[in-house]
Amino acid sequence: MVSLSVNGKAHDIDVDPDTPLLWVLREQLGLTGTKYGCGIAACGSCTVHVDGEAVRSCAMPVSAMEGKKVVTIEGLAVDGVLHRVQQAWVDLDVPQCGYCQAGMIMAVAALLNATPKPTDAQIDEAITNVCRCGTYPRVRAGIHHAAANA
Amino acid sequence: MTYMPQLDRRSFLAGSAAAGFSFGFAIPSSGDALAQGAASGGAAPEVNAWVVIRPDDTVVIRIARSEMGQGTLTGLAQLVAEELECDWSKVTTEFPTPGQNVARNRVWGDFSTGGSRGIRESHDYVRKGGAAARMMLIEATAREWKVPAAECKAENSVITHAPSGRSIRYGQVAAAAAKIEPPKDVKLKDPKDWKIAGKPLKRLDTADKVVGKMVYGIDVKLPGMLSAAILDCPVFGGKLKSFDAAAIQSMKGVRKVVPVDDTAVAVIADTWWQAKTALEKLPVVWDEGANGKVQQADIDKMLAGGLDAEQAFVGNQNGDVKAALAGAARKIEAVYSYPYQHHVTMEPLNATAVYAAERCEVWTSTQNGEAALAAVIAASGLPADKCEVHKTFLGTGFGRRGRSDYVDQAVKIAKQMPGTPIKLLWSREEDMAHGSYHPITQCRLTAGLDDKGNLSALHMRISGQSILAGLFASRLAGGKDPAVFQGLNASGETSLGYSVDNLLIDHAMRNPHVPPGFWRGVNVNQNAIYVECFIDELAHATGQDPLAFRLELMDKHPKNRAVLQAVADRAGWGKPAPAGVHRGIAHFMGFGSYVAAVSEVSLSGDGKLKIHRIVAATDPGHAVNPAQIERQIEGSFVYGLSALIYGECTVKDGRMEQLNFDTYEVMRLREMPKVESIIMPSGGFWGGVGEPTICVAAPSVLNAIFAATGKRFRTFPLKNHGISMA
User: Using an 8 Å Cβ cutoff, are B703 and B611 in contact?
Assistant: First the structure.
């Protein structure tokens, strides 16, 4: 049994403690907004927040989440109001297929928490998620747009 | 490519599919497309196959093509809405099912979504669908008001009759319109009068994507569903000899271990993680066969043999190359090669199937719903009227999801546990081990030049793999694969933009055991490198400006010239670049569109490549949504440059060596150059958008690298030459 908080809700989950957080979110909790892309923490599709930090959930055992606060893409908007990163993504029409974008948005939201007005160089360093559609120019513009709307 | 499922249409129509049969499973809502299904006609009758208007004025536009990020869902809706004269803010979309298409005599046309054909091959009939619906709405109103239809005008979902000052909303008249006989003579607007189409409108499918609600195939959930992980023989063509199910049977969650055909084994478990974990512990014995001994060097040697082979299929020919080369003042020769590459769709392949003795249904992300349906029919062994496919959004496709191998497997697994829905998901490693790889080729180019440096003869010998031979041998023309010559043809939608008096382009087909497939951009990608880098070589070898040298050969190719000149002008070709920065240029034609690019790069002594700026032009004939075209152009550079810098799959002991992003790197945000797009639709034709630009990414950068360093790279990816991104 593993106890963790996801999107403000406490859960006790009967699962092998080695199971990656990603699969507990998707399969035990039904939160499928967080995506599987590689399973080796290389692509970032599975990015969530753990105590406010961006974490690649596909290679993070759920047992390490004991007592921690997990936020997923489904929990980013508060009371139906989009987070400013989500709003920027809508304003600038950032996603193409959208599959990587939940992880991208979570990574960007964590970046803006730590660095409210990131420079291009800081964005380059922090945002290493893979997007195969190639939304990178729009992602960069979206980050600046969201930062300006803080 | 057009696939037609082999269906007995009469039995299909008589069956329950025509009435929208289903197991009755509801899957999580993702806007109208999935929540309503194409059965929304039940609540509000369809005006015609393309348009449903609800009493609240919501306009539901049916989209037959798949949406994988390329944006055609929005573009196609714009084309229908333009002719329908509806309120764009009330537009939503849904996917009809392949089963419904077959049952209705393919009223929605082709579902296959590849070859950048989504819009260019359906614009005519979808616009006619919108126009016919508008005419029926007006006719129904005119009858109601007892006035001539010609006196009524439709605009923004409202019909008005000026003489009497009356007006009515579409939602109020849609039910009556549904009963009107469809018009026979439908006229389309002149694109210059477009108000919705041709405009840079935002996508219709963004809202769900930013909150994690969009449903891709991997997200499908059905009551009582189990999950399956699969392992196919890692050696292509190898067989499954045996497996020891007892060794993992007691692992938590494991329900069943099943063979799939004679090549693969799958574990079915309560969750996919349990299935995957158990599969990794399953003892499996393979019969790798002779292919298990094949190494990359064997394949390279096989292709090299084709460069000198006597026999080759001719793709494009004029004049007498042999004589012209023999008599040329100067001969220049170069050999290029292009590796295997993997699609790496962001969403790994998956399909969810339910099989019972009476029916079989599948939910999946597919680029070709009808091919998926054909696969379900074949794998289930059930009649067509007992099968159905439900399409979801795709986490990219890039051509890989045009194949239905994963659908076939899902049905064969579900068949071994009747009545239970089973979601088959490939691990990333399984995905990369069993791709439909970008075909491998080599190319020898031999040019003859006269004493003034004019190109008098060109022989281009391609040796290597045929996609059609691997996927649809029946489409070979007397053994020849016409698709090999994409971008090199004498005429048509992928023709060569140069006139050379003595020309021979031929192909020695060499098919290794690795399965090839359509890979975004397909054969245009390497053909553009071969032609555009070699032309650059000729210009430099004869001391001519690469742009001027090209233009000399392009008198008969005004549209190619126009895009080339456009990028040259915008980039400032001929004027000094910033210090340390060098330019390269390339153009090509693919998928009906003309594209060109100038890249500006610098390369440090230790191999750090920086791409500072790319100017790209495209003439797709008509630009249905310029904002989305810009995004496709930008994305094309990410795809094309990822391939150039990193993309390579190599064979060892008959299997692929690269199995995840750690060994198959792709471009990240920090490597993304600034891209300036020039969208210059010249009208009169419909070209594709999703793929053409990819092919100018690599040659424009390679030519810039030559300008910077004097080094000509002819094998790829660049990482093998010690080059990395700054």
Answer: no
Q: Which residues of chain B make contact with A81, given a CB cutoff of 8 A?
A: none
pLDDT at residue number B6: 37
- Asked if B232 contacts B659 with a C-beta cutoff of 8 angstroms, the reply is no
At residue B404's C-alpha, the angle toward residues B409 and B651, to 5°, is: 85
Identify which of B463, B441, B564 has the alpha carbon closest to the alpha carbon of residue B507: B463
B149 three-state secondary structure: helix
Q: Is A96 on the interface with B (CB under 8 A)?
A: yes
Q: Which residues in B65-101 are b (16+ Cβ under 10 Å) and which e? A: bbbbbbbbbbbbbbbbbbbbbbbbebbbbbbbbbbbb
The CATH 3.30.365.10 portion of chain B extends over: 29-209, 217-289+349-425, 309-341+437-725
The domain that contains A46 carries what CATH number?
A: 3.10.20.30
Task: Measure CB to CB from residue B273 to each of A19, A74, A99 and give the nearest one.
Answer: A19
Gyration radius of chain B over CA positions: 27
Residue B393: list chain A partners with CB under 8 A: 97-98
Neighbours of B192 (CB within 10 A): 7
The order of strands in the sheet holding B422-425 is B254-260, B264-269, B226-232, B422-425, B350-355, B360-364, B387-391
The per-residue pLDDT for range B505-543, each reduced to its tens digit, is 999 999 999 999 999 999 999 999 999 999 999 999 999
**3-class secondary structure, B198:** coil
What integer best gives the mean pLDDT of chain B? 94
Q: How confident is the model at residue B44 (pLDDT cuts 50, 70, 90)?
A: confident
**Cα distance between residue B124 and residue B129, in whole Å:** 9
Q: Across the interface, which of A40, A128, A134 has its CB nearest the CB of B662?
A: A40
Query: SS3 of A120, please?
Result: helix
pLDDT at A150: 78
- Residue A82 φ then ψ, to 5°: -60, 140
Three-state DSSP class for residue B124: helix
CA–centroid distance for B296 within its chain: 27
Q: Which of A31, A53, A75 is the last residue of a domain?
A: A75
Q: Between β-strands B582-590 and B593-603, what pairing exists: parallel, antiparallel or unpaired?
A: antiparallel
Q: Which of residues 106-165 of B touch A (CB under 8 A)?
A: none
Half-sphere exposure of B232 (CA within 13 A, CB side): 24
Q: Which residue has the higher pLDDT, B21 or B359?
A: B359
Residues of chain B found within 8 Å of residue A132, distances taken between Cβ atoms: 344-346, 396, 398, 638-639, 666
What tokens does B348 get?
């790994």
Per-residue pLDDT reduced to its tens digit, A89-98: 999 999 999 9
Q: Which residues in B247-359 belong to E strands, given as ranges?
A: 254-260, 264-269, 284-287, 313-318, 330-338, 350-355
Q: Give the pLDDT band of residue B43 (cuts 50, 70, 90).
A: low
Banded pLDDT at A6 (limits 50, 70, 90):
very high
Domain B309-341+437-725: give its CATH architecture: 2-Layer Sandwich (3.30)
Residue B582's pLDDT band (cuts 50, 70, 90): very high
pLDDT in tens, B332-348: 999 999 999 999 999 99
How high is the ipTM of this complex? 0.98
* pLDDT higher than 50, residue B252: yes
Best CA proximity match to B112, nearest among B127, B98, B94: B98
| pLDDT value at residue A1 | 87
Q: Is the Cβ pair A96, B398 closer than 8 Å?
A: no
Which CATH number is A98's domain given? 1.10.150.120
Q: What would the DSSP string read from start to end of B358-427?
A: S-EEEEE--S-HHHHHHHHHHHH---GGGEEEEE-B-S--TTGGGS-HHHHHHHHHHTTSTT--EEEE--
